[in-house]
Amino acid sequence: MTEGTRASGALQTREALLDAGAALAEEHGLAGVSVNMVVARAGVAKGTFYVHFKDRAAFVDAMHARFHARVEAAVGEAIAGLPPGAERLFRSAEAYLDVSLANRGVKALSLDARSDPAVQGSMEARRKRLAAAGVADLEVMGWDDAEEAAGLLAAMTREISVLEFDAGHRLPASRRVLKRFLGI
């Protein structure tokens, strides 16, 4: 077996474990994401889990990191070529909301894990990095306190994602309100 084949297989196993965790989180919340349940769902031995993740907290953190990587990719695609400003902010928020709906399991997990000290710091760092991406847009729009405004805009967008999570679908009225807050 070549090194590339082994690496590819390891990546597939890691992704299978993360997919299993996301499915379990959607069904049962964070409490349903035990190592035993994840490996059973992924169809791998328990020891395989620990080859990829130090512990359950590292696994939960990896699920959240993968979610944020998906958000960042979707946002990048949604705003490609747009000048800084309100429209770019709105499209970024919509991309986040759409990825949240498409990854309901991880969204459920992140809601449950917000107060877990084992992952709280890294999750908060990713949220802050995502919010900071909107600072330049808000400055172009004339906001004096752009960093604070970006944090509040991110919080509003996360709240819409929670409402959409509960509803199980897009909430066009909430998205229109967000658009109006941005002056569009």
From TrEMBL:
Coiled coil: none
DNA-binding feature ranges: 34-53
GO molecular function: DNA binding
Keyword match Transcription regulation: yes
Keywords: DNA-binding, Transcription, Transcription regulation
Domain HTH tetR-type: 11-71
Keyword Transcription: yes
UniProt cross-references to Gene3D superfamilies, sorted A to Z: Tetracycline Repressor, domain 2
PANTHER family noted in UniProt: HTH-TYPE TRANSCRIPTIONAL REPRESSOR NEMR (PTHR47506:SF6), TRANSCRIPTIONAL REGULATORY PROTEIN (PTHR47506)
Protein name (database record): AcrR family transcriptional regulator
Organism per entry: Actinopolymorpha pittospori
UniProt lineage: Bacteria, Bacillati, Actinomycetota, Actinomycetes, Propionibacteriales
